[in-house]
Design goal:
The chain has about 230 residues and is α/β, with parallel strands linked by helices. It is about 40% helix and about 30% strand. Bound molecules: adenosine-5'-diphosphate (2 copies). This is ATP-binding cassette domain-containing protein.
Length: about 230
């Protein structure tokens, strides 16, 4: 599971995140929704440890990741897989080769990497597209490759940073269905950051609404829906 405690991020005098608190259990999809400028990408970068918070902590499976040295951070980062908007795949690599990247960096043997890539392709339903290049895939398929790549190092937390933004409704639904399946089958804690309220309604167990750096409303999706 992942816990965000009193998370604050400021650039000089500009406070971008102002004391955020939430926890996401294994087997739960937690959506963070907010308009442009709310602080969503800054939150994503604090969660996947690309940015250091100004204060507060990000705790994964009981370990405070904000207190680690750079060397420890390289290992700790494997616990969090990230899927980005339009997936950022390498265009000269096939689907299978893109998924293999994190395993290569880690120095996993070729045979073991091939076995894992096959398993991941199967998990995201793209076994028959293994040798396709990104330009030969649909937007939804590219995002599924991005998800498989994010899972390569077996994280316990999956961070989705606008992963369905820009997809057509049908592709969005297929990505949503896959994330829900992964939540259940791998017992992942999923943090789903988006500006799209429609997608939140499809995917989330719990929701926080972020506005100008603060959580202005949060709770179980069913409770929030029946309140209004
Ligand atoms: P969102 O992803 O919700 O659009 P961001 O996290 O990108 O929001 O930005 C939130 C606010 O923080 C914006 O007002 C933005 O201008 C400001 N901001 C983001 N990064 C920086 C930075 N490096 N320096 C100063 N201000 C920043
Ligand atoms: P095992 O411990 O025998 O690998 P699990 O039930 O933990 O069994 O996992 C089932 C399959 O899913 C395994 O093949 C494993 O590689 C894969 N798997 C488990 N957890 C993750 C994860 N967080 N990310 C990606 N793959 C995973």
């Amino acid at each position: 599971m992942i816990e965000v405690n009193d998370l604050t991020k400021a650039y000089g005098d500009t406070v971008v995140l102002d004391g955020l608190n939430f926890a996401v259990d294994s087997g739960e999809i937690f959506a963070v929704v907010g308009p442009s400028g709310a602080g969503k990408s800054t939150l994503a970068q604090c969660i996947n440890l690309l940015e250091r918070p100004t204060s507060g902590s990000v705790v994964v499976n009981g370990e405070d990741l904000t207190r680690l040295s750079y060397k420890q951070l390289r290992v700790a980062r494997r616990r969090i897989g990230t899927v980005f908007q339009s997936s950022s795949l390498l265009s000269r690599r096939t689907a299978a080769e893109n998924i293999a990247l994190p395993l290569e960096y880690l120095g996993v043997t070729k045979g073991e990497a091939e076995r894992r890539v096959r398993e991941l392709l199967d998990r995201v339903g793209l076994t028959d597209r293994a040798n396709a290049y990104p330009f030969q895939l649909s937007g939804g398929q590219r995002q599924r490759v991005g998800i498989a790549r994010a899972l390569a190092l077996r994280p316990s937390v999956l961070l989705s940073d606008e992963a369905t933004s820009g997809l057509d409704p049908q592709s969005t639904s297929s990505v949503v269905a896959l994330l829900r399946e992964l939540r259940d089958d791998l017992n992942l804690a999923i943090v789903f950051i988006t500006h799209e309220m429609n997608t939140v309604l499809e995917i989330a167990d719990s929701v926080a609404r972020l506005d100008r750096g603060s959580i202005v409303e949060s709770g179980r999706l069913v409770d929030l829906l029946t309140d209004h």
